[in-house]
Amino acid sequence: MNAESEMFLIRVPASTANLGPGFDSIGLALGLYLEIHGSLSDHWEVVPLSEEMSVFPRDDRNYIVQIAKETAASYGKELSPCRLFVSSEIPLARGLGSSASAIVAGIELANIVGELHLSNEEKNRHASLFEGHPDNAGASVYGGLVVGLHTEERTDVVSFPIEGVKVIAVIPHFELLTEDSRNVLPNSLSYKDAISGSAAANVMLAGVLSKDWKLVGEMMQSDRFHQPYRAELVPHLALIEEVVHNEGGFGAALSGAGPTVLCLASPEKSEGLLTGLKDRFPEFHVKELEIDNDGSYTAILSEQEKKELKFLKS
Ligand SMILES: Nc1ncnc2c1ncn2[C@@H]1O[C@H](COP(=O)(O)OP(=O)(O)O)[C@@H](O)[C@H]1O
Ligand SMILES: N[C@@H](CCOP(=O)(O)O)C(=O)O
């Protein structure tokens, strides 16, 4: 990019990780978005357009800018400064992948401004290195359901679109940092538990591929890797599982590291489940979310599209 009059758009979906037993390996992209409208400028400026974004630095100390600069630097490039208008529908520290969305946004920023021409595989490798695991990062890059393995040496992710199941998120008002929720996990697992945990993840994935959502729901609640240890931090999980069972939903699991709980239901049962959860948990935000099968998106805006941006007029 070299014209200051050009404006770009970056849109990155939220994500839910693990789906129960797929710890640090399975993720699903969701229809809540982090959006950046940006253009070249003579200095770095980050303008928050949504309340949650207003807590972050407004100059080049902003995490998204830091990620962008580091990504460009890894290709020997220095990014030209930009003015970025940032808004996000993704609540922070609730287990809906806000940190991965910020990382992927930073990589997309480096890609578009630095003209890096990165493939999705390369974007995901960078994002997984920053995030430490590929479940949220992969979902935000590719969209749909992702299954991945990330090591120091390489990141392998397979993604495929998901249809025919409804997703309801029960989002508490309190934050739970992923770091704190990882600190309660054990350093090792018995051979027996590891086999059972891995089998549950395998069967869950087979259930997804064969569209056997009832089986998927059962496997979501058969995790051995993290939910048993995190239960003390999220006492509402067991109560939500009960409501999901009573309302004929498929199952529930901690979304990422929590505290949000992700529930799956058939299109026929989702309305009843939504109402049941809202009635039982008035203190939480209960919301049906779309599945995003497209992943992160970037575009250069047309003159007409720029004219339609309300925040540029105020
Ligand atoms: N747009 C953003 N800009 C800067 N930092 C962000 C942004 N989004 C998330 N973060 C950082 O990530 C933290 C939340 O990450 P994390 O604890 O992994 O939870 P989650 O990713 O589930 O929302 C926030 O407290 C904040 O420090
Ligand atoms: N696999 C990770 C996922 C963390 O997701 P987040 O949305 O809570 O950041 C974990 O379970 O720790």
Quick summary of this structure?
The chain has 314 residues and is of the alpha+beta class. It is built from 12 helices and 11 strands. Strands 1, 2, 3, 4, 5, 6 and 11 form a 7-stranded mixed β-sheet that branches. The chain has a 4-stranded antiparallel β-sheet with strand order 8-9-7-10, sandwiched between helices.
Key terms for this structure?
single chain; binds the ligand N[C@@H](CCOP(=O)(O)O)C(=O)O; seven-stranded mixed beta sheet; alpha+beta; four-stranded antiparallel beta sheet; binds adenosine-5'-diphosphate; Ribosomal Protein S5, domain 2; 314 residues; Alpha-Beta Plaits
Task: Describe the protein.
This protein folds into two domains: 8-161 and 293-313, 2-Layer Sandwich (Ribosomal Protein S5, domain 2), CATH 3.30.230.10; 166-289, Alpha-Beta Plaits (2-Layer Sandwich), CATH 3.30.70.890. The model has no long low-confidence stretch (mean pLDDT 97). It is 37% helix and 23% strand. With 314 residues, it is α+β, with helices and mostly antiparallel strands. The protein has twelve helices and eleven strands. The chain is globular. The strands form two sheets. Strands 1, 2, 3, 4, 5, 6 and 11 form a seven-stranded mixed beta sheet that branches. The structure holds adenosine-5'-diphosphate and the ligand N[C@@H](CCOP(=O)(O)O)C(=O)O. The ligand N[C@@H](CCOP(=O)(O)O)C(=O)O binds at residues 17-18, 23-24, 95-97, 99, 133, 135-136, 178, 182, 226, 256-257. InterPro entries: GHMP_kinase_C_dom, GHMP_kinase_C_sf, GHMP_kinase_N_dom, GHMP_knse_ATP-bd_CS, Homoserine_kinase, Ribosomal_Su5_D2-typ_SF, Ribsml_uS5_D2-typ_fold_subgr. Pathway: Amino-acid biosynthesis; L-threonine biosynthesis; L-threonine from L-aspartate: step 4/5. ATP binds at residues 91-101. This is Homoserine kinase.
